[in-house]
Sequence to fold (476 residues):
Amino acid sequence: MTARQNRMILIGLVVTGVTVSAFLALQAFEENLLFFFSPAQVAAGEAPTDRTFRLGGMVLEDSINREIGSLTLNFIVTDYTASIPVSYTGVLPDLFAENQGVVARGTLDNQGGFIAEEILAKHDENYMPPEVAEALALSEGSQTP
Amino acid sequence: MAFIRHNLVRIVNAISLLNTNFWRWFHQLASPPHVFALAGRVCPWFAGLAIIFLVAGTYGGLVLAPADYLQGDGFRIIYVHVPSAYLGMLAYMVMASSAAIGFIWRMKMAHGLAVSAAPLGAWFTVLALVTGGIWGKPMWGTYWQWADARLMSELMLLFLFLGYMVLRASFDDRDKADRISAILAVVGVINIPIIHYSVEWWSTLHQGPTIAKLDEPSITMDMLMPLLIMIIGFTAFFGWLLCKRLQGEILKRERQTRWVDGLIKGRTA
Amino acid sequence: MMEFMLMGGYAGYVWSAYGITMLVLVANVWMAYRFHAKWLKRAQEEGMTKVSTRQPRVRRIS
Fold:
């Protein structure tokens, strides 16, 4: 075997070794790599109850309520399997709205609700002009009367 | 039968000719004067292409593209953010694959190319992180989230570029620096699929891929065109500076050789 | 024109993102050309010293 072939095999082994160890490491730290828990995971008791975590999902339609005379906001986060009521006091990102993605950081209270300290908005990968969005909403509306 | 055999012979001959041509071409790439001249020839083409496409893409992105239904004009940051992120990864692949070729075939020119790609890739990655933060603030409500897998793997990419450069700088012996830094570059390739699939494997704040997927792009044509033009512009820009840096790197490595001496004499005479 | 500059309320974000990008790209061009020029100059200088020290006197006379 030539020295060149030796080096070729060495590079191949390095790549394979790193791929396998990265795979194992990512499997082991799976939970730490999740940015948020879904309402279904929270309902199944997978989310921590003793410390802060992030809850992510969609803001349920018609669920946003502002408490009169305060900056506190109540809304429901859903993944269409389970729903968690969230309360939050503070500033909101521009994209926070009904039927939009949201990630809230906070803790569970003992009544199954979630008290958020920070609200982030999550948007999807679709970009389109307003006319296209309107036309799309219109056609979807007509398909499901 | 004779017809088939005749044609078979022709095909085999053509393949072997192609094969010898490939290896001749490959070995020419090991010759510094040849690579230096080649880089000098393609450099102005890349430069011209880069300037034309970057200007056109910027105009398209800022003026021609319509505002997004959700993000309004804020979405226009996509035209600098996505090309930067893509070029950071492309530069890494160029760096790692040429470092691997340099390592296996002991090719100094391949190591030279890897060295030239590193600072460019690092700067593109910095741009991706900075423009991403600027975009994230109004839309997501945050510049940076440590726990997000996409953001972290992109930061990892920057550290890999910086690590490669720092590791090289720590050796006085250039051949040793070439060999050892090549191993780091190759090991770091694992981060590239992690960056790409991070948004699919784990829950992240960052959304999924818009164009880099097998499905149809999730963006309308009038918004996509400037983005593609910008990506071509950034790629040509990378090619331009890569050639310029490679020429510099060759001069650095070969400055005491006869051919460089001849080159300079020819130039000044 | 004013409307274009305001970027629908996102002026600060959009213009800073484009501004920083342009700055970094231009700086990279400058750095690459400076790197090239530095080693070209070095090659010229070392070529001259090398030639003057290495060449035997006899040859220079002839």
Remarks:
- Chain B has a mean pLDDT of 93.
- Chain B touches chain C through 41 residues (CB under 8 Å).
